[in-house]
């Protein structure tokens, strides 16, 4: 059969990107990347539906694809998958967007080959599809995400994920080790980024005691693995026992901790229904006790219902004290179907925006001061891709910069190539980025 030209748009989080890569893997060796809908046989849009802005972005993206597809000499098949489909359902979405040829929720991804094949055949683009996987990576050279679980069993008042993705389900140790070895030993990927809605919960549903420790014991010895990064570590799971174990592992595990704390005041954390509703400074201090060199990232929500100036002041003081390496701040969104949507004390949008901007301005100062201390030091840089603006300059990351969410390191030199780890001298620090010479 002929090759199929595919244009892919993956919205939302890294977990969604992994799903996209698995769907692309089902298309096999006959897949040819297309630049846009106009020259594609198939357009795959994997949507996000977590919060209202993400839903709006997903709808806008689909409408843009439809316009481009309708103007193409040969209209491509349009397939829409992901969290927005799971949240709102195919019948309602199809009624509003009849131009879409195939809808698929997150719980139907295993059916992707069987559902897609007849649609392609009807459009005159017959193509043999394999079982879901192995993945076709879409990330920059040098790293890949390893999704270790699906869904979430926590009951945070503001979150739609359990309704969209279901309860927490861990993948097996054997399955994860097999995929990791395929990515690193055969694919040549030096960095694996472990993702899940709560990585510290890994294995609980498999009756695995200390599941994350067992998983790391499987992954750490993989030949060729240089960096191993953990994302989405719920604070309640970062016990002294786990941290002590992690501290004894050494490289390739990076002392990078992505801990979604969401707030700092116990009253707001309790109203949020967070699994850890105590003083988050306890978690920050606990991590730094075991990892004095740790780089901490967190995400915070401002303007949660009932948040007063007193609550916000506590949050701001917490950010000042903690000096996170990386920080994301998001205004609360009143999401239909969540417990928080019906809570009293909804905060005006202008207040949420003002609080968010003030925290990010504070974080910018902290980041600039922290990065300035690195000027003159020598750091290992993982090179990702050439800079689109400056010939000879590449975009990369040092160990405390996670892909897609943190700052980057611009690096140049004769040994700099995508996918390679190089030693480089830090010559300049900006608010969130570094400039280095290898």
Instruction: Tell me the structural class.
Output: alpha/beta
CATH superfamily of the largest domain: tm_1862 like domain
**Strand tally:** 18
The first-level CATH class name of the largest domain: Alpha Beta
Protein described:
It is globular and about 60 Å long. It folds into 3 domains: 4-122, 3-Layer(aba) Sandwich (Rossmann fold), CATH 3.40.50.12160; 143-372, Alpha-Beta Horseshoe (pyruvate-formate lyase- activating enzyme), CATH 3.80.30; 378-437, OB fold (Dihydrolipoamide Acetyltransferase, E2P). The N and C termini lie far apart (46 Å). The chain has 13 helices and 18 strands. With 438 residues, it is an alpha/beta fold. It is 33% helix and 21% strand. The relative contact order is 0.08. Strands 6-9-10-11-12-13 form a 6-stranded parallel sheet.
Short structural description:
The chain is of the alpha/beta class.
């Amino acid at each position: 059969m002929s090759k199929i030209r595919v244009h892919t748009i993956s919205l939302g989080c890294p977990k969604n990107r992994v799903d996209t890569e698995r769907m692309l893997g089902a298309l096999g060796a006959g897949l040819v990347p297309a630049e846009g809908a106009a020259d594609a046989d198939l357009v795959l849009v994997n949507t996000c539906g977590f919060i209202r802005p993400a839903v709006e972005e997903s709808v806008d993206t689909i409408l843009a694809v439809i316009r481009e597809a309708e103007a193409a000499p040969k209209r491509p098949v349009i397939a829409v998958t992901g969290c927005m489909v799971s949240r709102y359902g195919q019948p309602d979405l199809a009624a509003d967007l009849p131009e879409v040829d195939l809808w698929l929720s997150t719980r139907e991804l295993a059916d992707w080959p069987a559902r897609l094949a007849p649609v392609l055949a009807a459009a005159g683009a017959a193509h043999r599809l394999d079982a879901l996987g192995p993945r076709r990576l879409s990330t920059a050279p040098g790293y890949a995400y390893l999704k270790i679980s699906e869904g979430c069993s926590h009951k945070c008042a503001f979150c739609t994920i359990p309704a969209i993705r279901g309860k927490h389900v861990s993948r097996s140790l054997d399955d994860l080790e097999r995929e990791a070895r395929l990515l690193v030993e055969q694919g040549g990927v030096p960095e694996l980024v472990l993702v899940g809605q709560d990585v510290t919960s890994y294995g609980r549903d498999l009756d695995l005691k200390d599941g994350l420790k067992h998983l790391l014991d499987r992954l750490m010895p993989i030949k060729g693995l240089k960096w191993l990064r953990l994302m989405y570590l719920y604070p309640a799971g970062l016990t002294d026992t786990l941290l002590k174990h992690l501290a004894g592992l050494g490289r390739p595990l990076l002392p990078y901790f992505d801990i979604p704390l969401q707030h700092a005041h116990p009253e707001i954390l309790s109203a949020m229904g967070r699994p850890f509703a105590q003083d988050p400074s306890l978690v920050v201090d606990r991590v730094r006790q075991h990892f004095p060199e740790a780089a901490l990232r967190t995400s915070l929500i401002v303007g949660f219902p009932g948040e007063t100036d007193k609550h916000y002041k506590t949050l701001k003081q917490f950010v000042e004290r903690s000096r996170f390496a990386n920080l994301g701040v998001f205004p609360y969104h009143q999401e239909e179907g969540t417990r928080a949507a019906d809570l009293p004390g909804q905060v005006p949008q202008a207040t949420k925006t003002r609080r968010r901007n003030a925290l990010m301005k504070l974080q910018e100062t902290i980041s600039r001061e922290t990065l300035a201390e690195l000027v003159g030091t020598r750091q290992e840089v993982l090179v990702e891709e050439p800079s689109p603006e400056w010939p000879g300059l590449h975009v990369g990351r040092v160990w405390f910069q996670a892909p897609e969410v943190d700052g980057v390191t611009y690096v140049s030199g004769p040994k700099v190539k995508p996918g390679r780890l190089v030693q480089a001298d830090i010559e300049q620090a900006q608010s969130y980025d570094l400039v280095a010479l290898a």
